[in-house]
Amino acid sequence: MLERIHLTIVQQVEKQGSLTAAAKALHLSQSALSHSIRKLEQRLGIEIWRREGRHLELTQSGAYLLSIAHRVLPQLALAEERLQQFAQGERGALRIGMECHPCYQWLLKVIAPYLNAWPDVDVDVKQKFQFGGIGALLGYEIDLLVTPDPLYKPNLQFDPVFAYEQVLVVAEDHSLAKVSFATPKDLIEETLISYPVDIGRLDIYNQFLLPAGITPRRHKTIETTDIMLQMVASGRGVAALPRWLIEEYQDRLPITPIRLGEKGIAKQIFLGSRITDQKVDYMEAFIALARQSPR
After folding, report:
1. Sequence-distant (≥ 6) Cβ neighbours of residue 233 within 8 angstroms
2. Which CDD domains match (predicted)?
3. Residues 6+ apart with CB under 8 A from 74
4. CA 132, 135, 140, 144: dihedral to nearest 10 degrees?
5. Strand 156-171 vs strand 144-147: parallel, antiparallel, or unpaired?
6. b/e string for 124-146 if b means 16 or more Cβ within 10 A?
7. What are the pLDDT digits (tens) for 21-55?
8. 244: DSSP letter
9. Would you put residue 45 in left (φ > 0), alpha (ψ -120 to 50) or beta?
10. What is the mean pLDDT of each run of 10 residues along the chain (295 residues)?
């Protein structure tokens, strides 16, 4: 019978690189680990690894088991965590992944009232999933994904919770500060500051500059919103960010939002979740609260 330990061993051997290292990580003797896998191979009539010199290579059966391990083990870990929370009188946990740099400030406005309304739910925000959260959601590493760019997959649902406009932000004394909207040509001689994200996922490129066949003079990346806007305010570049975010900073920094193109760029923040979790009450409550969050 296929057991959890078999999946764990296959996963750890792949992760650690050898049977010896995997046995150490699992606090098993190498002979016990090898014996467990050998019994499984004999019972099922398969081979999981094939030795190539000093290395182990997964067979087709082993590769399939590894894919099952990546899917099943996180679900079992989540189930154990939830059951322990129930045993301790807690309702559960809500793990939120961020796939949107500026959305963190928006999320704070939702989490504060949510924690008050649901004191028995443990909330964790995982920013390491920025621009790679779909895999984390499908792999049960997170429960909700905050993203402006939903990628529709089977078993996932994306709820729009917050509409906003993506704008160009410039210093108050910038030559573009008084125009009603910016054109792609206006950015030819500019330094464009953005988060460290692939150009293909930046709206200012894929919806504004590239369709016009234009790139800025220089593209600079900065990880934090505060530093980025300090750079813009000091005249060292321009950036594209949500209008609501710029309006929050305007009382602290001499910056101005400018519409991107005559019609502007309309965006939405979505909350992605697994369809199987749609009826979890505290998740439904979070999505409902997100829709009512301050703009």
Report:
1. 171, 172, 253, 254, 255
2. PBP2_MetR (cd08441)
3. 139, 140, 141
4. 50
5. unpaired
6. ebeeebbbebbebbbebbbbbbb
7. 888 989 889 888 888 888 888 888 888 888 776 67
8. H
9. left
10. 87 87 89 87 87 80 87 79 64 83 85 91 77 79 89 90 95 95 96 90 93 95 93 97 94 96 94 88 92 74
Residue ranges and CATH numbers for the domains of the chain are: 4-85 (1.10.10.10), 91-162+268-292 (3.40.190.10), 163-267 (3.40.190.10)
Distance separating alpha carbons of residues 121 and 47, to the nearest angstrom:
44
Q: Hey, what are 95's tokens? A: 């793990």
Q: Which amino acid is at 59?
A: T
Q: Report the phi/psi class of residue 48: left, alpha or beta, with left for phi > 0 and alpha for psi in -120 to 50.
A: alpha
Rounded Cα gap, residues 166 and 258, in angstroms: 9
